[in-house]
Amino acid sequence: MKTPFADQFIAAKHGAGGPAMRALIGSVFLADVEDSEVLAMDDGAAIPFGDQWLVVTTDAHVVHPVFFPGGDIGRLSVCGVVNDLAMMGACDVLALTSSVILEEGFSIELLRRIHASTQQACREAGAKILAGDTKVMGRGEVDQIVLSTTGIGVTRRVIRGGGLQPGDAVVITGTLGDHGLAVLSARHSLGLQGDLLSDVAPLNGLIRQVLLAGGAGIHALKDPTRGGVTAALSEMAERAGVAIVLQQQALPMSDAGRAASELLGIDPLSVANEGKALIGVHPDQLQAVLQALHSHPLGQAAAHIGQVHASEKPALLIDTGFGQRRLFEKDAEPLPRIC
Amino acid sequence: MKTPFADQFIAAKHGAGGPAMRALIGSVFLADVEDSEVLAMDDGAAIPFGDQWLVVTTDAHVVHPVFFPGGDIGRLSVCGVVNDLAMMGACDVLALTSSVILEEGFSIELLRRIHASTQQACREAGAKILAGDTKVMGRGEVDQIVLSTTGIGVTRRVIRGGGLQPGDAVVITGTLGDHGLAVLSARHSLGLQGDLLSDVAPLNGLIRQVLLAGGAGIHALKDPTRGGVTAALSEMAERAGVAIVLQQQALPMSDAGRAASELLGIDPLSVANEGKALIGVHPDQLQAVLQALHSHPLGQAAAHIGQVHASEKPALLIDTGFGQRRLFEKDAEPLPRIC
Predict the structure, then answer these.
(1) Across the interface, do A128 and B32 touch by the CB < 8 Å criterion?
(2) DSSP H stretches of helix in B215-247
(3) Which of B12, B50, B105 sits opposite A10 (nearest CB)?
(4) CATH 3.90.650.10 in chain A, residues?
(5) Any residues with CB less than 8 A from the CB of A270 and at least 6 apart, and which?
(6) What is chain A's alpha carbon radius of gyration, rounded to the nearest angstrom?
(7) H-helix or E-strand containing B155?
(8) How far apart, in whole angstroms, are the C-alpha atoms of residue B196 and residue B253?
(9) Cis link prior to B48 (omega < 30° from 0)?
(10) Interchain CB distance below 8 Å, B101 and A146
(11) Around Cβ B320, how many Cβ atoms within 10 Å?
(12) Does the distance separating the beta carbons of A50 and B50 come in below 8 Å?
């Protein structure tokens, strides 16, 4: 990062998926990493294995509340890693592992419900949990349940979040912010649950269709989870050394999501999604990709939302219809324990 | 398990590595698992991949205190999964992943020390952490730090904990109980730290030598972690449908371990080890295996501790020199958060 790392204690921002988290990771965890044989990616790694790549990713899930409109921590724990694999091009999931950390006194009936939802998400993704671990901490030593999941996938071609090229179209596969807004609404009992549902879903089936339709024209993939679209596109622009200009009018939102974001005063571009992907695609393949998306149940609201431009400085901008302004990632955590 | 699962709430015993944990896993997590292509193992899974097996295992680490004589949670998080892979015959580690769950306010200086120790253990194991995740929970929502690690290894031959055959010799690679006793001593500030050190170490190098020396004569491997030697051998006997008779006089213990277990009144056979393996070996290969163990720094105190016998009922027995008695696994947690 630009400034030396001076923080002495962990703060919520260090888990927020933004610049503070990347600074912590760069300063502490990646200070000594180098391996030319391995592609260290945005959300995982790709390891050469025979004539394919083995893709590996891991995620801990600490969402609060554990059950929220449209999903729960079990479904989230599967979709989170399946989607990270898919974003690297690995739509075939070889194996998942799941570590379960439980607070003493947690209800076994709730655990069964979480497991059933986990298995349902696995079926949707064509994935299986093949290894697990169970740990119990005392009352007050962990808040209810934490699930840590690792995914292993295979692919012949690795896609990178930083692969954007000038001229590319930027596509999002559906409406913005539904996960974060649904979790927040449930957490604060805002009574918005009626139509407002988390979008948490496994995207590997959808991305498989996108890769078939777009072929080598698919230059970059990333799922806008923590920090939302703003964080994901800022990181993509930074890595590719390009500018991205979004069209505000083109951003798809559900009616319930729009209402909730206005009521809560939260920018839907900065809120986590758990069933959406951002796609950087060569203009020649744009229409084929949009057609593939619209013919899939999870891509109905897909839209072409922006363009990639050559730029001396990486930047993310939004065209509001009255001019362009820059969007900046938030350093602090807007929504703790959103995933 | 023998009785239907009637517990309604999570208790410490459900994380203890014994019968209660296996009952929970069987009742909740494995109720719907079946896959003939995959070997679901004691501590992981083996997936056919080309002409090899991809071996996968996962572990969450919640040890308290985070630093203990001889190690810390970072070293433990690497050794735990590297050893589980080695016990399945996968001494070559393809990748590790690490999820870090931090309590707000945790010291970044301590995090750096934990990371340095993690990297040291990786170097000893010839392994690398290739993907990670960082989550932050609020104060009081998690106790300091939890590390969840997944390991991926490759092997041409998968070894099973349940592969014991009548006539096999049972070997342990070193002294009993040092990890559990060192953690307990540190937790209760017993001042025994002088000579009493956790044995936490990566065993893949040692097991590679054992497999070279013993070849197809190596029938079973298991590391006696939670629940100690009693839990590990009970499970091995159960799975193989055999009886195991241990010779009490042959059990190797460090002087500090023996003193601590007597002072604390804790059976060293029931205490966790984090750098030891139990080996079931055909008698024809026993001497070669013991020689290989004794010529490795981690196998100096290796000993032939028992024999496997055909039996109508699986059982673990100990010959005290004055007769034989049965050993039983503990259902409840003798030592919570030992790993």
Answers:
(1) no
(2) 228-240
(3) B105
(4) 169-326
(5) A227, A228, A229, A230, A231, A330, A334
(6) 19
(7) strand B145-155
(8) 11
(9) no
(10) yes
(11) 12
(12) yes
Indicate the angle between helix axes A204-214 and A73-87, nearest 10 degrees.
20
Contact map slice: A 146-165 vs B, CB within 8 A: 146, 148, 150, 152
Annotation: CATH topology of B169-326: Phosphoribosyl-aminoimidazole Synthetase; Chain A, domain 2 (3.90.650)
Shortest distance, CA B319 to any CA of chain A (angstroms) = 33
A82 CB near a chain B CB, below 8 Å?
no
* B278-297 pLDDT, tens digit each: 999 999 999 999 999 999 99
Domain with CATH 3.30.1330.10 in chain A: 43-155
pTM: 0.93
Euclidean distance between CA atoms A81 and A126, whole angstroms: 13
Among candidates B76, B38, B188, which has minimal Cα distance to A135?
A: B76
State the helix-helix crossing angle for A204-214 and A108-125, rounded to 10 degrees.
20
The predicted complex's ipTM stands at 0.92
Spatial separation of the C-alpha atoms in residues B329 and B332, rounded to whole Å:
9
Q: Please determine, for residue B218, whether its predicted confidence score (pLDDT) is greater than 50.
A: yes
What residues pair up with A191 in beta bridges, in sequence order? none
Rounded Cα distance, A108 and B9, in Å: 5
Rounded to whole angstroms, what are the CA distances from A253 to A177, A178, A196, A260, B93?
Answer: 8, 8, 11, 11, 45
B331 touches chain A (CB under 8 A): no
How are the residues of chain A apportioned to helix, strand and coil, as percentages rounded to the nearest 5? Answer: 35, 25, 40
Minimal C-alpha gap between A15 and chain B (Å):
5
pLDDT surpassing 80 at residue B167: yes
Distance (Å, rounded) from C-alpha B207 to C-alpha B217?
A: 13
Contacts of B272 in chain A (CB under 8 A): none
Point out the residue among B40, B132, B134 whose CB comes nearest to the CB of A15.
B134
Query: Which amino acid does the sequence have at B22?
Result: R
A135 has a chain B CB within 8 A of its CB: yes
Q: Which amino acid is at B96?
A: L
Among B5, B54, B58, B103, most A C-beta atoms within 10 A, so best to mutate, is B58
Amino acid at A161: G
Asked if the model's pLDDT at residue B2 lies above 50, the reply is: no
Model confidence over B233-284: pLDDT tens digits? 999 999 999 999 999 999 999 999 999 999 888 899 999 999 999 999 999 9
Dist. CA B206–CA A184, nearest whole Å? 51
* 3-class SS of residue B95: strand
The DSSP H or E segment spanning A162 is none
Q: CB-based contact (8 Å) between A189 and chain B? A: no
Is there a contact between A9 and B35 if contact means CB atoms under 8 Å apart? no
Nearest to A19 by CA among A27, A63, A149: A27
Q: Which residue has the tokens 């559990």?
A: B180
- The Cα–Cα gap between A154 and A157 comes to 9
Interface touch B60/A100, C-beta < 8 Å: yes
Q: How far apart are CA A326 and CA B268, in angstroms?
A: 64
Residue written as tokens 């008779």? B245
**CATH number 3.30.70.1730 given to B43-155:** no
Residue among B4, B56, B136 at smallest CA distance from A12? B136
Paired strand residues for A60: A148
A269 contact partners, CB below 8 Å, separation of at least 6:
A176, A177, A228, A229, A230, A251, A318, A327
Would you say residue A339 has pLDDT above 80? Answer: yes
E strands, A90-168, in order: 92-103, 129-137, 145-155
